Amino acid sequence: MMASGVANSGTFKISTPSDTEITLTRLFDAPRHLVFEAMSKPEHIKRWWGNLGDGYSVPLCEVDLRVGGKWRFINRHPQGDAEFYGVYREINAPERIVFTEVYAPFPDAESIVTAVLTVEGGKTRLIATSKYPSKEVRDLVLGTGMERGAALSYDRLDEVAMELAARK
Amino acid sequence: MRPMTDQLTNTFAALADPTRRAILARLAAGECSVTELAEPFEMSMPAVSKHLRVLERAGLIARGRSAQWRPCRIDAGPLKEVAEWTEQYRKFWEGKFDSLELYLQELKAKERTDDGKRRGK
């Protein structure tokens, strides 16, 4: 297990509350209004969202923060560009935001993301749940490496893939 | 470098079907004929052949050239890319959230400075 050394890194968790959902949670050492702002204003999003090191950037970040407003991000990474877009459905600053999300290569696999921010002893907990159109799509997004030991309905494909990858 | 996204799109589309995943799981145990593959699925030969064509197009399986007995075997290449991609997904969010935490510290410091300035005067 890698330790990133960043504060609260160990609080990052991935879980599957239902057959069609993935929940990401993490604690942040900042007041709730700042976490909400950092997640919803382009000038802030650009600074952290695609900032994973050399070769990563956010060449495009559009946010129309109102119900029915569109958002669109492009994440540039060493293998190319990953485009995500969607529409805001609910905005209740600073505690809750609901939006649709599409990963551009899979336009039919729209997910609905509900992000909830709770205050926890001076820190802020983010609970972001993505709901996918089917278990199959959810499993594809979740894939193999996301959470060690999670029993996913992938027909052992993850083990198979790893085994074969190691053999090559 | 090959265009990753197109390869992954094909691979994911091929993997999106549970029968095709089961076929791959079976082939992971060793190569076999179409007849052998069809057996556990209660499916017609044409239906199995159709799944095999999708898997073949995605590069997930390769088929022997002999006309009568065309054994199918699994090809690790695209699966390895899927494994790498999904590991990236976990790292992607872990990395993004770490990045957000660091950025929030900057925002917090800035907010304190701004507050200080306002109150100081």
Description:
The complex is a heterodimer of chains A (168) and B (121). By secondary structure, chain A is α+β, with helices and mostly antiparallel strands. Chain A has 4 helices and 8 strands. Chain A has an 8-stranded antiparallel beta sheet. Chain B is mostly helical and 121 residues long. Chain B has helices spanning 4-15, 18-28, 34-38, 45-57, 76-120; strands at residues 61-63, 72-74. A two-stranded antiparallel sheet of chain B has the order 1-2. Chain B starts with a helix and ends with a helix. The interface between A and B is large, with 54 and 47 residues.
Summarize the structure.
The complex is a heterodimer of chains A (168) and B (121). By secondary structure, chain A is of the alpha+beta class.
List how many beta strands of chain B DSSP finds: 2
In the CATH classification, which architecture of chain A applies?
2-Layer Sandwich
Unreliably modeled segments of chain B: none
Strand order of the largest sheet of chain A: 1-2-8-7-6-5-4-3
Just give the CATH class of chain A.
Answer: Alpha Beta
Largest interface: A-B, 54 and 47 residues
The counted number of beta strands of chain A is 8
Count of helical stretches of chain A: 4
Domain count of chain B: 1
- Uncertain stretches of 5 or more adjacent residues of chain A: 144-165
Distance between the termini of chain B: 59 Å
Sheet bearing the most strands of chain B, described? 2 strands, antiparallel
Helix percentage range of chain A: 10-25%
What strand order characterises the main sheet of chain B? Answer: 1-2
